[in-house]
Amino acid sequence: MADRTVADRMTDLEGRIAIVTGASSGLGAAVARALAGLGARVALVGRRKDRIEALAGELGGLAVPCDLADSSLVGAVVPAVAEGLGPPEILVNAAGSMFTEARAEDEPLDAISSTLSLNLMAPFLLAQGVFPHMRDLGRGSIVNVSSISGRVGIPGIPQASYAASKAGLSGLTAELAVQWARHSIRVNTVAPGFFRSEITGPLYEGERGAEYLRRNTPLPMEGSPEDVVGAILWLTSDAGRYVTGQTIVVDGGWTAR
After folding, report:
1. What is the per-residue pLDDT for 213?
2. What is the pLDDT of residue 25?
3. Helix (H, G, I), strand (E, B), or coil: what is residue 64?
4. Residue 124: phi, psi to the nearest 5?
5. Using the 8-state DSSP alphabet, how is residue 240 labeled?
């Protein structure tokens, strides 16, 4: 049997404290479970209090209810985690949403503002919040969850403010990575392609949408949250200790065409 000591050591998160946003469902919940499975103590952040409390109970973690689209509430998240679990050294910004399906010329201001607040401003504010803890610990990993919409336009799916917010995460990632590298704080972004979620559900339900996805994805399989989780685990663990400032695309080859 092969010696797994090196691999186990590289992915061991025993005792590390992690914050995962958007943890009430989908990718965020999958990330929280995976981090806990590697030994991390996980704080789950989300709007749906009942869901994150249930998952926190299952994982032995901490539920921190918060509507991250309200910038005035974001500042309370990290102090609650530090008090309840200890200083965080992992932050996964998985929360994100679209607030309008209008074409760019018709997007209402309130939807643009909400999109940017949740998808871009909240990750920045949370990064600011965890910085002093990571600096004092002498290490840390921040992973932002973006989208291929931040890299390429998607025909037939209007999402101008969403795309702008996700592209902004890559710029924020590169800048924070350079500024905070001296503290051994790594900052990266994962940009998923299409997989089933609350946002993309309608696209998968009809044969036309499903065929559109099959036709435009080179790999002959449907993406899943677990495909993205693998990249996030790499970046949060010591397996990715020399990776920072990057946007890692996980899309089955969609953007490689």
Report:
1. 87
2. 86
3. strand
4. -65, -45
5. G
Q: Which residues partner with 64 through β-bridges?
A: 45
Token pair 């101008």 is found at: 160
> In this structure, which amino acid lies at residue 223?
G
Q: Which two tokens stand for residue 135?
A: 């600096």
- Residues designated catalytic: 162
- Residue 46 forms beta bridges with which residues? 65
Residue numbers in the chain where pLDDT is lower than 50:
1
pLDDT of residue 1: 47
Neighbouring residues of 225: CB distance < 8 A, sequence distance ≥ 6: 26, 27, 30, 195, 196, 197
Q: What pTM does this model have?
A: 0.94
Alpha carbon distance 227, 131 (integer Å): 28
**Beta-carbon-side half-sphere exposure of residue 82 (alpha carbons within 13 Å):** 16
Q: What is the pLDDT of residue 4?
A: 63
Q: Which residues pair with 21 in a beta bridge?
A: 45
Give, for 69, the enclosing helix (H) or strand (E). Answer: none
| pLDDT tens figures, 15-44 | 999 999 999 988 999 999 999 999 999 999
Encoding tokens for residue 117?
């607040």
- In 138-206, alpha helices (H): 160-180, 201-205
| Residues 71, 63: Cα–Cα separation, whole Å | 19
